[in-house]
Write a structure and sequence with these properties.
Order of helices and strands: HEHEHEEEEEHEEHHHHHHHHHHHHHHHH
Helix content: 40-55%
Distance between the termini: 67 Å
Structural class: alpha+beta
Oligomer: single chain
Shape: elongated
Number of domains: 4
Largest sheet: 7 strands, mixed
Number of helices: 20
Radius of gyration: 27 Å
CATH class of the largest domain: Alpha Beta
């Protein structure tokens, strides 16, 4: 992203850094004999001037000491990644992941065996990209062992040290390289990094579908998602994770919704659930999109309301957005916008007849009741939902 860069010398005035709960946790660790700094993404985003979601901390003291001093300070403590040196500290509802400085002893492309260290430079050298390898202390002083700030200024996503070695440590870094480029990069990606990713793309087969899905979902909604996906396609990396179409115009016209864009990207949407281990909610949206009929603002209002009733709000919204993006109509077209807004201007009504009403009308429970109810509902929808409960009850008595 192109943004105003704060001076490298200090983040001392940053409001997020001076937030009392963060300062209290850092002070507790320092009081316990540890050096502690904010690490990675928070420092990167602060220098870029973009929002900060999570604040992660790194420290020189061991995980059991982190737990001890933070418990003594009255914070909640959870050993969420203890074997890798990570403890989650909770201070008045805010979570901070605190990780002991470490170096990789052994890696297999998915997981690492680590050894703890007190050397900040060693910890920085095991991180993925230079922009993610910066630290700042409680006073805002920045520590940059890999020239990450220089790469930020150039909007360049660059691996720390040897790109091939970083990738061999965790093949997911291939997708992270493209994801960070889509969010923070500018122009062509780093040549050495791109070549390393292309060379090692087969290693993605070692990565779980869940981890791949998480990266794809973050990448596909990035500001430069489409240009980055094109680069991934040209390098063969995209083919290594998903059979894809190359309708880049469609993907670029779709809103920043990961499920919608994934559907537009996939050559075989029906296979996405198993391929990427989608959640049930995401898989249902994909299924509904696969089954949804093409439609347009040419539909008459009663037809629109009937379709919305049967599809439901989410499926209707997805279908409208996908069909709108698939055509040549301007993204500011008022008729398409009215279709998209229909669930807000016309709340989906509920059939005013229940199973109890049918029992009281003398219709026995069972398959026949279901058939009668469906016929009654179809008649109600065909009336453009105008028939009242009283009218429906009268019709029910005549049909009983």
């Amino acid at each position: 992203m192109t943004a105003y860069m704060k001076p490298l010398s200090s983040l001392s005035t940053a409001s997020w850094l001076n937030e009392p709960r963060l300062q209290q946790v850092m002070a507790a660790i320092a009081h316990g004999g540890g050096e502690v700094r904010v690490a990675g993404g928070a420092v990167r985003n602060a220098l870029l001037g973009v929002p900060i979601a999570d604040v992660d901390l790194a420290t020189t003291i061991l995980p059991h000491d982190v737990m001890r001093v933070c418990k003594a300070a009255g914070f909640g403590v959870h050993p969420t990644g203890f074997e890798h040196g990570t403890v989650t500290v909770v201070n008045n509802g805010v979570q901070f992941e605190v990780t002991t400085l470490r170096r990789d002893v052994e890696t297999d492309g998915r997981r690492a065996v680590v050894a703890f260290t007190s050397d900040w430079a060693q910890d920085a050298m095991r991180r993925d990209f230079t922009m993610n390898a910066m630290y700042c202390d409680a006073a805002g002083k920045i520590f940059d062992f890999t020239n990450g700030y220089r790469d930020l200024l150039r909007n360049r996503v660059k691996f720390v040290g040897d790109a091939n070695e970083r990738i061999k440590e965790d093949y997911l870094r291939i997708l992270r390289f493209f994801r960070f480029h889509a969010w923070f990069g500018k122009g062509a990606p780093d040549k050495i990094g791109l070549a390393a990713c292309t060379k090692s793309k087969s290693g993605l087969k070692k990565i779980s579908a869940e981890r791949i899905r998480q990266e794809v979902f973050k990448l596909i909604v990035a500001p430069r998602a489409v240009p980055t996906l094109k680069i991934m396609a040209a390098s063969g990396v995209l083919r290594a994770i998903i059979p894809y179409t190359d309708d880049w115009r469609l993907i670029g016209r779709l809103p920043n919704d990961a499920v919608l864009r994934l559907y537009g990207l996939a050559k075989k949407p029906a296979e996405l659930k198993d391929l990427l281990r989608l959640s049930n909610i995401a898989a249902l949206r994909i299924q509904d999109l696969t089954l949804a009929l093409e439609f347009s603002p040419l539909l008459k209002p009663p037809e629109q309301r009937a379709m919305l009733y049967h599809l439901g709000k989410q499926a209707w919204t997805d279908a409208v957005q996908f069909n709108w993006a698939s055509g040549k109509t301007s993204k500011k077209d008022l008729k398409w916008q009215a279709l998209l807004d229909l669930p807000n201007t016309w709340p989906i009504p509920k059939l005013p007849i229940s199973g109890q009403d049918m029992l009281e009308a003398g219709i026995a429970s069972g398959p026949h009741m279901g058939e009668v109810l469906r016929c009654l509902e179809d008649w109600w929808v065909a009336s453009d939902f105008a028939s009242t409960r009283e009218v429906l009850l009268e019709r029910l008595k005549n049909d009983a």
